[in-house]
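JOB MANIFEST
job_type = single_chain_structure
chain_count = 1
residues = 165
[input]
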Amino acid sequence: YTQQHAAETQLSEFNLTEIKAMLGSYTKVLFVRDPFQRLISAFMQGMGSSPSFSSFVQDVLDSGWHNASTTWKPLVSLCRPCLVQYDYVVMFGFLRQELGHLLRRAGLHMDSLLPESTDTQVGWTYSWLSEQMFSELSLQQKKQLSHFYRWDLAAFPFSDSFLSD
């Protein structure tokens, strides 16, 4: 898209004609991650002032969908996958494989640009963390989280998510 705009300009600031032109001229890549893993990551990075994961989750639930931080807000409200036709959807846990495909399509060498960590190692770590953190939550919190992220769980294949039940 040829129009100059600041990097922090949001799509909603453009008119419909400009939006269509931009979306039609870019390769659109959406990176998605299990919402429960996003919560764990936010907690581990100290995004909240809560002393425990359970109290952090309660703070998230109490803040509501509209007041949620972009760090843990449901992806469908941020990325609008039903309105934007993404060219690629890259799942966390398959980053090396999927990014390798994207880089090859762009004519770049995969090995020099991707981190060394393997998806298997990352998957195992988050599986273990998810199990530990999920066990800290009350049944009501688990149900509320599943409801909070229901549209993400419906839109993306997070079949292994602890919130999928």
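[summary]
Residues 126 and 132 are 10 Å apart (CA to CA).
Residues 11-155 form one domain.
exit_status = 0
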